[in-house]
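Here is one chain, start to finish.
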Amino acid sequence: MAWHDDDAFWETWAPYMFSSERMRDAAHESEQIVRLAQIGPGARVLDFCCGIGRHSLELARRGYRVTGADRTRSYLERARAQAAQWGLQIDFIQCDARRPGLRERFDCAINMYTSFGYFESDEDNLRLLRSVRGTLVDGGRLLIDTEGKEVMARDFREREWWRHEDGTIGLQERKVSRDWRRMETTWMLIRDRKLVWESIVSSHIYSAAELRGILEQAGFSRIDCYGSLAGAPYDQYARGLIAVAFK
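Its structure:
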C-alpha cells in the first residue's frame, strides 16, 4: 500500500497537520487565494485534496460555491460537520483526484498545503492535472501551493523536530533521492517517550520550471509562478512555490 492510501497515516497526523495555528491561517490564506487567482464573486471553486476543508469553509463563507474533494473519509466527515455548524452549503466528495468523476464545471480549482506530487509515477501526477483541467470552464484557472525545489534546497535540514500542542514530539528525517526528483521523509511521532508512529512519506518535488512543464503537458496555456500567496516573485527570497495556471 502506498503511504498516501493509508487511512491510519492521515488520522494519526491530522491533529498536527491541522493545528490551531493552521486553522487560524486559513481565513487570511483564502483572501490571498481570491486575489491571486482572480476569483470573481460567486464563482464555483473546486478545492481538491481539501483535507478537513479549511479553505473550502472560508471560501464558502465569502459567498463562493465550493466543492471539496479528498480521499480520506474521516476528514470529509469533519468538514461536513463544520459546514453544518456554520450553516454553509458545500459539497464534500470522497474520490481519487486522478479520477474525480465530477460533472460540475468550475471557474477555479485550488490545491493547497503541498498536496501535489504524491504519486510514484509521473504519469499519475500528470493524469491528476489533466483531470482537474477537465473540470474547469474555458478561461478557468488552477492554483497550486507547494514548497518548490529551489526553496527546499536553500532551506534543507536533514533532521527536524517539533513539540506539538498536546505534548507529543514530531520528528522528520529527510533524504533527497532520484537526482533531486523526489524527497523521502521519515515521519516519527513520540508520545510519553515512546515511538508510536514511524513511516516514510515519498513525494515528487518540483522546481518552478518543472511545475510549469508538467502543467503545460496537462494542457494549460499560461502559467504564472509566485513565491508566496501574496504574489511575491519566485526568487531567492521565495517562501514557497505558487503556480496559477489558466485553461
